[in-house]
Amino acid sequence: MTPSLAAQAYLLACDPGKGRIRRRSHVALLVRASAVTDLLLRGRLTVSHGRVSATGRGPTGDLLLDDLLTGLADEGPTRLRRLLRRDSADTLHSLELQLAAAGILRSHVMPVLRRKVLRLADRSPADDARATVDRALRGPLSGVDTRAAALAALAAAAQVGFTRRSSRRHAERLAELDEVAGSAVPELRGLLRARRAAIMAGGS
């Protein structure tokens, strides 16, 4: 089964050398935005006047997406900004549990502090996610599907797998990917950039 956009975003964020993520707050925002986008692309959510609504409660085939969809169906129309900010840390934790249950992540004890962390069991899923983004940025636009376009656009906005320099270098292509990914992605990108800036300002 094709990994959800949230799972691909997480894998993209994994450090190639250490096999685990850094800057959890940034990754949490990207994972949350990717899950929302995935549901939009599946037609399970709609956006009207900046508010997101569920189109039903049926299973999606992914437990994380099912939980998000059920919550939205219970709550009713919700602003994109609120949906992105709310429960992003919980969404990240739920995704990690799901990936660990699937054997994609495994628990590892740090030798000094004896703290448990989750690491990739195998690098190939993360390599696949990076290859997907690379093809979206460099390959023919006609060959880029909506999911790959959304993953690249959102990751660039969250500065996950991207630097400021690479985001500027690919700015024109990222704008083109917005068109491929669907009407909600540009707004989500803007919200991600704003939240990332707020987190960095708070940390400084």
Structure commentary:
This protein is mainly alpha-helical. It has one domain (5-196): yeast vps74-n-term truncation variant fold. 61% of the residues lie in helices and 10% in strands. The protein is built from ten helices and five strands. It has helices spanning 5-13, 24-41, 63-75, 80-85, 88-101, 124-138, 146-158, 164-169, 171-181, 184-203; strands spanning 45-48, 51-54, 78-79, 105-109, 116-120. Strands 1-2-3 form a three-stranded antiparallel sheet. It has a two-stranded antiparallel sheet with strand order 4-5. Strand 4 (105-109) and strand 5 form a beta hairpin. Helix 2 (24-41) packs across helix 3 (63-75), helix 2 (24-41) packs antiparallel against helix 10 and helix 6 (124-138) crosses helix 7. The chain is globular, with a radius of gyration of 16 Å. The model has no long low-confidence stretch (mean pLDDT 89).
Outline:
With 204 residues, this protein is mainly α.
Tags for this model:
single chain, 204 residues, yeast vps74-n-term truncation variant fold, three-stranded antiparallel β-sheet, globular
Tell me the structural class: mainly alpha
How far from one another are the termini? 41 Å
Helix percent reads: 55-70%
Q: Estimate the mean pLDDT confidence.
A: 89
Report low-confidence residues grouped into runs of 5 or more: none
Give the tally of structural domains: 1
Report Rg.
16 Å
Largest sheet: 3 strands, antiparallel
In terms of quaternary structure, what is this?
single chain
Say how many strands there are: 5
CATH architecture: Orthogonal Bundle
CATH topology-level name: yeast vps74-n-term truncation variant fold
The global form is globular
Strand content: 5-15%
CATH class category label: Mainly Alpha
Task: Give the neighbour order of strands across the main sheet.
Answer: 1-2-3
**SS summary, helix count:** 10
CATH superfamily: yeast vps74-n-term truncation variant domain like
